[in-house]
Amino acid sequence: MAEEVFPSKGYFNSTRFKATKTPFLDGSNGLAGKAAQVISFRHEASGNSVYFKAFIIAFNESYSSDWVPETVFGRADPIQHFKQTSRRMSIGFKIPAATESEAYDNLSRVQQLIQYLYPNYATTDNTQTLSQNPFVRLKVMNLAQKNEPPPDDAKGKSDGMYFKEYKSTADPAKGVLGTITSLNVAHNLEAAEIGVLEIGANTILSKMIEVNLDFTVIHESHLGWNESNEFATPSFPYGAITSETPGGPGTGPPDDARDANETPEERDKRMQDEERARQRYGTMFGKARLKKDLKYLAKMADKAPGSLTKGQQANVNYLLSTTKGAGLEGFDSLEDYEGLHDLRTRKDIKDTADDLHGEFIK
Fold this sequence. Notes:
The protein has 362 residues and is α+β, with helices and mostly antiparallel strands.
C-alpha cells in the first residue's frame, strides 16, 4: 500500500483542467493547500487518499455506552452491567467550484470517495470473493485523528509548552479508522441561487456539492482506567495534553482500597449504592433523613424474625444498601441494628448520623 502524505503544492488548482482567459486567484486554494485545512479520507485497502477543502457545515460526535440491566427482586433499580462504549461521527461539508475546471475536479473527488464504500474482491477459480472490507480513515484536522501515545519527553512540561506544541497533520494515515455507514451527496441542481455549469451537450457540473456522512469509529488502542486511576490512552480523543497527562487525572492509588479486590459485580453494586446515597442524603435535609433511616432500621431490627411485611422488607433492603453507600461500615444486615432502638443508644444514632453525613457530603 502506498503511504501518501498531503501533496500541498498545486493539489487544489482551480485551473487544473482548463485555463481561464483572465488571471484567476482563488484564496481558498492557498488556505487548503499551504495551511492544510482539509478533510481527508484514506482507503485502507488500496492506500489511496482524497482531500476536500474544509468548508464544514456540521461536525458532531456521539459516544454511546451499552449497559445490560439485571433486575433483582427487592431492589428499586436494576443492576447495570457495562458492555462497551462506541464512538460515532457525522460530518457535513460543502464543495464549491469557482471554475468549470474545479467543478469537474470536485465531481471526480466525490466519485473517488463513493468508491471507498465498496470492498475488495479476489478471483479464485473464476469466482469473485470478498477479500477486504472497505475500511476508511477519516482525518478532520485535529478533531478526528489517530491517538498516538505521548512521547517519552511529554512529562514535566509546562501547560504553555503543551499548548505551543499542539499541532495536527493533514496526513490521512493519521486519521481515525472506521466505517462509513451512510453517505449522502446533494448536487443542488434545483437551487436557482447556486445554478449549474453547462460544459457541453447533455453535460452539466454542479457549482456546489454537499456531502453528509456518518462514520463509526473502530478504536485501535486500549481505552479505560487502570487500578492506579490512569487512563490507558491519555491523548484520546483530541490529543490535547496538559500537565495532568499522560499519567491521567487523579494519578495515584485509588482512594478506596476496595477497588483493587472488588469483582466487577461488587463494584457495580457499590457504585449504585453510592449514587443512591447521594440522591437521598446529599440534599438540604439529607442529615435529618439519614438519622430517620437509622432509627427506622433499629426499630425494624427489634421486631420478631419473619414478622416484616413485604413492604417493610423492601424498605429495609433499600435502606441497608443506601446507608452502606453513604459509608456506614459494620451494618451489613438488619441483625446488626438489634438493640440500637433502646433510648440509651438514640444519642449514638444521632452522633453516628452527624459524623457519617459530615464525611459523606465532603
